[in-house]
Amino acid sequence: MPAGAGDAHPDQRAGAHGWRAAGHEVGVNRGHAALGERLRPGGQRPRVSRLPGVALKLLISGGLTWYLARGLDWQELARVFASTHLGAFAAATLLFVLSNCAGAVQWHLLLRAQNLRVTLRQTVVLYHVGVFFNNVLLGNIGGDAVRVYDLRRLTGQGGAAAAATVMDRFVGLLSTCTWALAAYPLIAGTERAWVVSVLAPVWLVLVGALAVGLSQRLGRGLDTLAERLLPPPLAGFVVRSRRLVAVYRARVGLLAVVLLVSFAVQFCRILVYYAAGRAVDMDPGLTYFVCFQPVAAIVAALPISVGGLGVREGTLVGLFEGVGVERNASLAMSLLGFVAGIAASLLGGIAFVMRQVETEQPLEEA
Hints:
Largest sheet: none
Number of helices: 16
Oligomer: single chain
Order of helices and strands: HHHHHHHHHHHHHHHH
Strand content: under 5%
């Protein structure tokens, strides 16, 4: 259950809306501007530019988009978009909003297990802000880093915040792989369906990592191995991180609830693309979306493109082409699903602006 006003940390109660943490004398916009910059000894910031990385991502996204565009019938694609059913597209957007709300509940449960005193309202706002940074901006500041940064300022416990956020991502990846692999036998005989089976070793690695993180015996073995093979600072980091994750070992019931919520979150995101497909009269069957969308989501999450653009579209077009879906339709479906995510993410942008006003207002009065 979310913490009430009476049990909130004293530093969290400073400010009219509970957003001003101890030592938070600067506005949120300045804090986020410095988020990705590590300080050198003496307070100097590194001069290494992130421009080459962003440029490479733009190049990859642009190159893949150009490759897809080569074989398109532009008049047909324009016709597909012109005949989009707006009701189905609105449903896709609402499904993405619903998945974000459920995802915030999932993250909140993991935060509470780390004894972080945050209310459900704070968690929902921070989660949506993180989604906004992930989906809307170019990606040199990750949404997960924003969430951890905000929680550290709010609670003073950066390690626990990072552990809960990593576990949140971990459970999401595990559940999305499980959906795809569970449905895979139903389409195993179709062309290119074998690509889904590539998720099997990923799933096994995730299960093994979860076992190491939660098992006392395996965890101690990992600690010993890290202390023997790694430099002391890195070994200490591994040991502390593993112990923070091990907190969930005593909360098996909570983990089960989190996993169920995560299945719902990921299924909603599959339905986003199914609804986007219906918006352009593309309906090969829900089973194919259950199998193919997780593959595209995982590939798009790799840090090799801008927002997964081009990578996601190429994956979905290639997979659906193997089951007889025309390229224009599958590309339109993928782009509409992406736009639905962008539209839903704008709620996080509004939350970011409103929270900034709430934080800075007391400073102006002072």
